[in-house]
Amino acid sequence: MAIEDAISLAICLEKNSFRIEPSFQDYYNQRFDRTKRIVNLARYLGLIVHSQNPILASIGRRFGPFMMKSERLMKMTEDEYYEKCPIPMKPL
Predict the structure, then answer these.
(1) Do 79 and 38 meet the contact criterion of CB atoms below 8 Å apart?
(2) What is the per-residue pLDDT for 91?
(3) How far apart are CA 12 and CA 14, in angstroms?
(4) What pLDDT, in 10s, does the model give residues 4-59?
(5) How far out from the chain centre does Cα 22 lie?
(6) Are 67 and 73 in contact (CB under 8 A)?
(7) Alpha carbon 23 to chain centroid distance?
(8) Which helix (H) or strand (E) holds 73?
(9) What are the residues whose beta carbons fall under 8 Å from the beta carbon of 23, sequence distance 6 or more?
(10) Considering only CA atoms, which of 38, 27, 30 is closest in space to residue 80?
(11) Is 89 left (phi over 0), alpha (psi -120 to 50) or beta?
């Protein structure tokens, strides 16, 4: 995400003739929702897998590998990282 952030900021700076305040406001408006979704998803997955609750941790360890192989999860990930990305990208 750091590279995506840097490219997005560069685009905002260029679009706003390198004026700092409007560039950062555009950057914030453009990046906040996407970044929040990705951070929250990672946080919740981490809470399950690294939970102090033995039942929840067991569920995370047992079903985590299956979830990672899930076509639905892979499609959601692909949508988030490629289709919703503000920078044109293609999967490898």
Answers:
(1) no
(2) 59
(3) 5
(4) 899 889 999 999 999 999 999 999 999 998 889 888 888 887 887 788 888 888 88
(5) 24
(6) yes
(7) 21
(8) helix 71-78
(9) 9, 12, 13, 15, 16
(10) 38
(11) beta
DSSP the chain: -HHHHHHHHHHHHHHTTT-HHHHHHHHHHHHHHHHHHHHHHHHHHHHHHT-SSHHHHHHHHHHHHHHHH-HHHHHHHHIIIIIS-SS-----
90: left (phi over 0), alpha (psi -120 to 50) or beta: beta
Length of the chain as a residue count: 92
Instruction: Name the residue with tokens 């289709």.
Output: 83
| Token representation of residue 82 | 């490629």
Residue with tokens 């951070």: 39
Give me the residue label for tokens 């039942």: 55
Q: How is the chain split into domains, by residue range?
A: 2-83
Query: 57 is written with which tokens?
Result: 């941790």
pTM of the model: 0.62
| Type of residue at 69 | K
What residue type is 21 in one-letter code?
E
Residue for token digits 């985590």? 64
